[in-house]
């Protein structure tokens, strides 16, 4: 459907050596730490691109939310979780940008602003980063941590939905692997966040 | 029931993509604290809940119902009072906090105990904020109560349903008053039971550069649900790693390229 283009990511060759371009294989050499970014194959479709562009935006928003939490202050256990989310999502963000760049695709969707005005079939508006940040900024000192946790939980639920859409409609094996990682990772994060918000 | 939710995708201009990007579930909101039954399922504090654990925000059914599952058979577990849901100890004034994943035009919010509507908030079709909180007086009630919280959507015939089990007014006979996630009985390792109890002296919330730390680490295999401190060492798939940043581990945070900020191969 879309012509193949080569993502010339430096270490791709090393990682994918031996794999044909068509057959994705999880490359996990025994007893060797994976220290190179996963390289994306050149086979992808519009769903893959839309997913990565949306997740790049979504990750940027996550980092903004977490940064605000750092400046406003939270319990130590919340701060530790937030810091770990921040660190891992920063890496995911770099990987996704690398894939889009390697494919020659823009890092943002062509109409990301319009996304804020899009309606779903039942009239619901997606929660935007602006909504989330406004809620956080408005929260009193006493209410801040609870607001932060609830915002982040909702934000991560949305990441799971995007990831599941990619899992269903994407074709790029690495993007789908990432979607699977995001689905599982955010589900586990939500467990911790829910325990904190009710505790 | 599955509906097409044309998520921000539609606006990206990919017609094909937006058709493919049908949301897997109708997802919109639930009460996170005091924890609703679906929140207890999603957090892993109550196990064997079925599909609701993955989409606590999806208990959407026609308005006017007085049950915990919105009439959805796949979520019927929520309506099963025989499950011995843990009740949260509260006073007579309670703040209910909602997680929202979409902003529906909102007609109203209702809180019921039995046949009595204990609170009602009229929104008149407004879009809610990213999170919603309501303070509700439960004066006149005591002991264990099942509270029903309802979010009535403004421009659809639908509503979102949540049951919240409460132990009102001090002294409860129920498992684990909310402030202790570690008291939960679930055997699942991933449920973050160990977040709190281990008061970590060395915990550093900021991004920590790797630094030589005395070898105090438990020399085990990496495992989820474990609180690791900076300097702890683990083995994962035959490779040794040192923790660079304190955290409680979850599945997907095992050592890999994606978690190099947490684990450095040594």
TrEMBL record, chain A:
<dbReference type="InterPro" id="IPR012347">
    <property type="entry name" value="Ferritin-like"/>
</dbReference>
<keyword id="KW-0449">Lipoprotein</keyword>
<dbReference type="Pfam" id="PF03713">
    <property type="entry name" value="DUF305"/>
</dbReference>
<keyword id="KW-0732">Signal</keyword>
<feature type="signal peptide">
    <location>
        <begin position="1"/>
        <end position="22"/>
    </location>
</feature>
<dbReference type="InterPro" id="IPR005183">
    <property type="entry name" value="DUF305_CopM-like"/>
</dbReference>
<feature type="domain" description="DUF305">
    <location>
        <begin position="48"/>
        <end position="196"/>
    </location>
</feature>
<protein>
    <submittedName>
        <fullName>Lipoprotein</fullName>
    </submittedName>
</protein>
TrEMBL record, chain B:
<protein>
    <submittedName>
        <fullName>Cellulose-binding protein</fullName>
    </submittedName>
</protein>
<dbReference type="GO" id="GO:0005975">
    <property type="term" value="P:carbohydrate metabolic process"/>
</dbReference>
<feature type="compositionally biased region" description="Low complexity">
    <location>
        <begin position="191"/>
        <end position="206"/>
    </location>
</feature>
<dbReference type="InterPro" id="IPR004302">
    <property type="entry name" value="Cellulose/chitin-bd_N"/>
</dbReference>
<dbReference type="Pfam" id="PF02839">
    <property type="entry name" value="CBM_5_12"/>
</dbReference>
<feature type="domain" description="Chitin-binding type-3">
    <location>
        <begin position="219"/>
        <end position="266"/>
    </location>
</feature>
<keyword id="KW-0378">Hydrolase</keyword>
<dbReference type="GO" id="GO:0030246">
    <property type="term" value="F:carbohydrate binding"/>
</dbReference>
<dbReference type="GO" id="GO:0005576">
    <property type="term" value="C:extracellular region"/>
</dbReference>
<feature type="compositionally biased region" description="Pro residues">
    <location>
        <begin position="176"/>
        <end position="190"/>
    </location>
</feature>
<dbReference type="InterPro" id="IPR051024">
    <property type="entry name" value="GlcNAc_Chitin_IntDeg"/>
</dbReference>
<keyword id="KW-0732">Signal</keyword>
<feature type="compositionally biased region" description="Pro residues">
    <location>
        <begin position="207"/>
        <end position="217"/>
    </location>
</feature>
<feature type="region of interest" description="Disordered">
    <location>
        <begin position="172"/>
        <end position="228"/>
    </location>
</feature>
<feature type="signal peptide">
    <location>
        <begin position="1"/>
        <end position="27"/>
    </location>
</feature>
<dbReference type="InterPro" id="IPR014756">
    <property type="entry name" value="Ig_E-set"/>
</dbReference>
<dbReference type="Pfam" id="PF03067">
    <property type="entry name" value="LPMO_10"/>
</dbReference>
<dbReference type="InterPro" id="IPR003610">
    <property type="entry name" value="CBM5/12"/>
</dbReference>
<dbReference type="GO" id="GO:0004553">
    <property type="term" value="F:hydrolase activity, hydrolyzing O-glycosyl compounds"/>
</dbReference>
<dbReference type="InterPro" id="IPR036573">
    <property type="entry name" value="CBM_sf_5/12"/>
</dbReference>
């Amino acid at each position: 459907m879309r012509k193949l283009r080569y993502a010339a990511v430096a270490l791709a060759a090393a990682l994918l050596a031996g794999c044909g371009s068509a057959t994705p294989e999880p490359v996990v050499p025994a007893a060797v730490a994976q220290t190179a970014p996963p390289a994306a194959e050149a086979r992808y479709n519009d769903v893959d691109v839309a997913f990565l562009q949306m997740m790049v935006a979504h990750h940027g928003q996550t980092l903004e939310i977490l940064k605000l939490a750092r400046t406003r202050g939270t319990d130590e256990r919340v701060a530790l979780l937030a810091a770990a989310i921040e660190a891992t999502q920063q890496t995911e963000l770099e990987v996704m940008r690398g894939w889009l760049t390697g494919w020659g695709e823009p890092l943002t969707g062509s109409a990301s602003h319009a996304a804020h005005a899009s309606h779903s079939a039942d009239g619901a508006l997606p929660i935007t980063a602006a909504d989330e940040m406004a809620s956080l900024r408005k929260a009193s000192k006493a209410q801040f941590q609870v607001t932060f946790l609830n915002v982040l939980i909702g934000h991560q639920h949305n990441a799971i939905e995007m990831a599941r859409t990619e899992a269903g409609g994407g074709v790029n094996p690495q993007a789908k692997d990432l979607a699977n990682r995001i689905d599982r990772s955010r589900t586990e994060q939500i467990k911790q966040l829910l325990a904190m918000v009710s505790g | 029931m599955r509906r097409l939710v044309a998520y921000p995708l539609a606006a990206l201009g990919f017609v094909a993509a937006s058709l493919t990007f049908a949301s897997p579930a109708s997802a919109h909101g639930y009460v996170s604290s005091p924890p609703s039954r679906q929140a207890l399922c999603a957090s892993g504090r109550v196990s064997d809940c079925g599909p609701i654990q993955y989409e606590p925000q999806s208990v959407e059914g026609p308005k006017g119902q007085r049950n915990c599952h919105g009439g959805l058979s796949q979520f019927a577990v929520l309506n099963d009072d025989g499950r011995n849901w843990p009740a949260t100890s509260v006073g007579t004034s309670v703040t209910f906090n909602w997680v929202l994943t979409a902003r529906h035009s909102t007609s109203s919010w209702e809180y019921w105990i039995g046949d009595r509507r204990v609170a009602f908030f009229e929104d008149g079709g407004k879009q809610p904020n990213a999170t919603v909180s309501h303070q509700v007086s439960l004066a006149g009630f005591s002991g264990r109560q099942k509270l029903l919280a309802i979010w009535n959507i403004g421009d659809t015939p639908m509503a979102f349903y949540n049951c919240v089990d409460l132990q009102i007014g001090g002294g409860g006979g129920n498992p684990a008053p909310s402030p202790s996630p570690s008291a939960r009985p679930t055997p699942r390792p991933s449920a973050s039971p160990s977040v709190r109890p281990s008061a970590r002296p060395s915990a550093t919330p900021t991004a920590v550069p790797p630094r030589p730390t005395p070898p105090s680490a438990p020399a085990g295999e990496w495992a989820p649900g474990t609180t690791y401190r900076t300097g702890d060492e683990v083995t994962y798939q035959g490779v040794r790693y040192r923790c660079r940043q304190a955290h409680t581990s979850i599945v997907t945070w095992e050592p890999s390229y994606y978690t190099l900020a947490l684990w450095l191969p040594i």
